[in-house]
Amino acid sequence: MIRLPEIGGGVREYAPRSEPLTLGGGGALTSRTVYSAAHVVADPYADTTPDSPAAVDWDATLAFRRHLWSQGLGVAEAMDTAQRGMGLDWTGAAELIRRSAAEAKAVGGRIACGVGTDQLTEPERLTGPAGLAAVRKAYEEQLALVEETGSRAVLMASRALAAAASGPEDYLDLYGHLLRQASEPVILHWLGPMFDPALDGYWGSADLDTATETFLEVIAAHPDKVDGIKVSLLDARREVELRRRLPEGVRCYTGDDFHYPELIAGDEQGFSHALLGIFDPLAPLAAQAVRTLDTGDTDGFRAILDPTVALSRHLFRAPTRFYKTGVVLLAWLAGHQDHFTMVGGLQSARSLPHLAKAYELADGLGLFPDPALAESRMRSLLTVGGGL
């Protein structure tokens, strides 16, 4: 038994499971294209402060990517899950992209890398034509680096563009320029304000219906340059309506960490592929579920993946942007890294009761390869953090 603090107050006893979940073998996924956005592992011995550049443990970070590839998943690199703009600056992200892309080539892994504008360190100060020019230059710099590595580019939403744009026409102009310039089709990423409040009003309007029309106009003008879209709005109905309006050949990659089983399973009119942060801790279960779906067994797919939604909703509860803390906690408990330290000190972004609940939900799913190790590590965190 282990004593866990509860979110509403108090402490209760919990009996951890003694055996991990038994899963099938690896292999390629065929019915869906699935990326896991991957976290970075901090160097716990670096002498840093929250304002210092990120100190990354490169060996552990790349080892985790090999774990994802071994499950048959692709890696979405240098995305929100990797703490872009929340501890990892562009210099660190550029190094991460180079290293991960080289590792992907070595092992034959699928990889897509985030292209943003985070070298612009004060995006809120960018306004007017000069601001838009700076945003364009920043995007171009990052796009060039990702294309040099041979990775697929993910054009991420930009805080700087949100600050500089005066309306939909600025988004149409800038994205049109970038898509014409891209040498290969890219993934367009719409990240909602629940993940980053600075992105409120993206695509030129706070009204999501209006913003959707601008987004679709960008795609319709350049369908040959858009591999797909990643939608992270936590609104299943809106995603389904959006994917039904995509040009033929343009994929929808769900980024909805609340409704992913139903969106991936799809309906008689189509389905979503996946590019999800929750698949970082769920990688073995997610891969097993999609392999089941590959056989045409939708009910079996849902039976595997539906029970994981409670954990995902817990990790991604508001303030949603701090979900990374729970993701890294689970990586530590599962034995993928030796410590619970994050770049920027983000391990302190969630409460001890929140982390205890994440442990309980993950343990109940059988996610920990060594349940005894996970229990021991959770005990040590509870002792240090709460005196339990």
How does this model look, in words?
It holds the Pfam family DUF993. This is Dihydrodipicolinate synthase family protein. InterPro entries: Aldolase_TIM, DUF993. It comes from Streptomyces zaomyceticus. There is one protein chain. The chain is an alpha/beta fold and 388 residues long. It contains 14 helices and 10 strands. Helix 1 (58-70) crosses helix 2 (90-107).
Entry summary:
The chain is of the alpha/beta class and 388 residues long.
Question: Mind sketching the topology for me?
Answer:
Blueprint: E1 2-5, E2 11-14, E3 34-37, H1 58-70, E4 74-77, H2 90-107, E5 111-115, H3 128-148, E6 152-155, H4 159-164, H5 168-181, E7 186-191, H6 208-221, E8 226-232, H7 236-243, E9 251-254, H8 260-265, E10 273-276, H9 283-294, H10 298-305, H11 309-315, H12 323-333, H13 352-365, H14 371-386
Parallel strand pairs: 3-4, 3-10, 4-5, 5-6, 6-7, 7-8, 8-9, 9-10
Antiparallel strand pairs: 1-2
